[in-house]
Amino acid sequence: MKHLPFATVGFIATFLGITTFFSSTLFAADNAEGEKSRLASLAKFTRVLATIEKYYVDDIKIDDMYLDEKHFKDLKIQTDGEFGGLGITVGQKDGALTVIAPMEGTPADKAGVKASDIILKINKQSTLNMTIDEAVNLMRGKPGTGIELTLVREGETKPLTISIVRDIIKIESVYSKMIENENILYVRVVNFDKNIVGDVQEAIGKHKNAKGIVLDLRNNPGGLLNQAVGLVDIFIDDGIIVSQKGRVESENAEYKASKSGTNTKLPLVVLVNGGSASASEIVSGALQDHKRAIIIGEKTFGKGSVQAVLPVVDNEAIRLTIARYYLPSGRTIQAEGVTPDITVYPGDVPHKNNDQSLKEKDLKKHLEGELKKVDDNKTDVKETKAKTKTKETTKADKEIVSQENLFKDLQLKSAVDAIKVLAIKK
Q: Which of 112, 140, 170 marks a domain boundary?
């Protein structure tokens, strides 16, 4: 398999700034030092043009792809799983600056930003005719500083204004839990950084007695190609996972599964939505084509291009889209996305009001609250007990998806029900 340096999929570019390529040294004073600088810049320019002409899959402006030392470093930090900002991935969709997905636990997520939100303004500046990189430059800033986003959201009658405080983004890219009373493993992959394959393998290894796996890729904007390929390889042992085709025939490649990479045959369901992009679409689409998993949720974003960061000189590089991705069946992801096998929209699970387990639990909480209002003499004691209970609940939440939470997520509940059917058939 061919691997390009720092090869990525999706909207890695959204975390980068841009630098105008032409160095001011081209216009330096006419002296020996200026001449030397001018020649160095011209040599760099020649190498950049040659690389673009050889690799780029579409027509592109040079200054849209050039990475100076700072932005090259930013890219490497992002793929290592830690970077600064709001915690959202954005892209251009139908000419609008659109949120692909907020990353869980980040400032944007906590503030209420949602996948498919259109960013109308950043602070007071309109995003109409603004490039992605210009938008990212505005949204970046010192941790602890505030920013205001004006969003257009489907279903809302008027734009929403959300205030967010910037922070250093540290992503727990993989976490796993057991579904309460179901013996089903829930694995959430937040984005595709360099540790995904190992973390998922570890989660599966810790729960060998599980009867099935739910792989949650909702609002996952993508990341590293080799991790997407490796994740699919965990579940299939033969055949093409994804192929890429570009302008240069030598850059065409096929990425295949191997028996050595496979470590589970358990029934599998994958959850996706409109915030699932690039690497998430490769994984869900490949597993769907191989009939290895049932895909549940909503149609994915539709981003299937191959991006590579190619060095020009030390600590500087250019970012190129060199090819398109194709799934095992030959279909493309770009602008098409992955359509789930079973379409399920988000929401609560419809259930009867006499559901005893949930009713009893809810009633008890209500009565405890009412008792606290009237029993002033025992307020301190009850607060202490409540705090203890909260700590216990938090610890349990890290290990278990409760039935109560399951009933608040119709897509996840549908996935669990599908696993049950697959387990019976097996």
A: 170
Does the pLDDT of residue 201 top 70, yes or no?
Answer: yes
Indicate the average pLDDT of the chain: 79
Q: Which candidate, 325, 81, 288, 289, places its Cα nearest to that of 198? A: 81
Residue 349 lies in a domain: no
User: Closest Cα partner for 13 from 92, 86, 69, 82?
Assistant: 92
The one-letter amino acid at 258: S
How many other CB atoms sit within 10 Å of the CB of residue 48? 20
278 is catalytic: yes
Helix, coil or strand: residue 422: helix
Distance of alpha carbon 238 from its chain centroid, rounded?
A: 26
- Whether pLDDT at 262 is above 90: no
pLDDT band at 85 (very low <50, low <70, confident <90, very high): confident
Number of domains the chain is built from = 2
Phi, psi of 135 (to 5 degrees): -65, -40
Say if residue 318's pLDDT is above 50. Answer: yes
Position 67 scores a pLDDT of: 59
Mean pLDDT for 395-412 is 84
pTM (two decimals): 0.66
Q: Which of 281, 370, 372, 374 is nearest to 333 (CA)?
A: 281
pLDDT band at residue 391 under the 50/70/90 scheme:
very low
Is residue 174 within 8 A of residue 190, CB to CB? The reply is: yes
Catalytic residue among 68, 193, 199, 289: 289
In a domain, 92, yes or no: yes
CA distance 426 to 419: 10
Active-site pick, 37, 278, 305, 414 = 278
Give pLDDT, residue 313. Answer: 72
Whether residue 105 sits in one domain with residue 38:
no
Window from 110-119, 333-342, 380-389 with minimum mean pLDDT: 380-389
Q: Which two tokens stand for residue 173?
A: 């890219």
- Say whether both 72 and 91 belong to one domain: no
Q: Which domain holds residue 25?
A: 8-77
Look at the block and give the residue holding tokens 């988000």. Answer: 346
Pairing status of strand 213-216 against strand 184-189:
parallel
Domain boundary among 77, 107, 131: 77
CA 240 – CA 140 distance, rounded (Å): 39
Helix axes 225-235, 196-206, angle to 10 degrees: 30
Specify whether 291 is catalytic.
Answer: no
